[in-house]
Model the fold of this input.
Amino acid sequence: MKILNYLLIPVLCFFTMECQKSNVPEPLRNDILSSKPTNFKFDPKNLPVIGKTTEDDLKIMYPDGASMSSTYLKPRKRKINGNSFEFDRVFHFGEKEMKKSESPGMVKYSLQGYITLSIFTLNKTVVFYKILHKVKNSQDEWVPGEYNQDDPKAPGWGVNTYPGINEDACLYLLQYPIEERNKEISNIMDGYTEEDCKKKNNY
Done:
C-alpha cells in the first residue's frame, strides 16, 4: 500500500473536514482514507459470497465496518489471481496479531501477524475478495500465513493489499478537484493523468 501511505494518510484530516463541501463528488464523501481501528476478527467461515453478498450484508457480517474504503466514479477493471472483474468500491478489513512480552517495569507489544480481507463490489454487490495474510517465522521474517492468497514472490507482497492497488489509489485521487488535493499534498500530483498512474504504479 505504498502510495496509500504516501498520499492518502497525510490527507485524512483534510478530507474528513472538507468532504462536506459540494465540490467534492458526493459518492466519495463517506470513504475511509486512512486505516481506522476496528475490532474486526478474521473468520474463514464468515466470508462473502461472490455475486450474492451485498454491501448491506457486509454491514451485518462485519458490524465494526471497514478499516479503509474507496469509491470509484467509473468502474475499474482488475485481474487478480487469474480472476477478471469490474468494481466501483473496495473495502479493507484488517486484523493484527500482537505478541506481548514483559520485563521489569516494561511491557512490550510486537506485531507478529497481519491479515487483510479486501472486498470488491460493483453496484453494491460483491464481485471478488482476496486475503493477504503474513506472519513472522522463527527467524523473525515475514512469510505467508495460512490464509494468504498472493504470490509471496510478487512485487509488493506483504505491503500492498492486492496487486494493482497503487495504480487504483493514484486514480482514486485524480477524482478529487485539484484545489482540494493541493491544499494538503502540495502539487505532488499536478499534471498527473490516468496514463501516469498506470505507468508509475503498475504493481
Summary: Residues 92 and 196 are 25 Å apart (CA to CA). DSSP finds six helices and five strands in the chain.
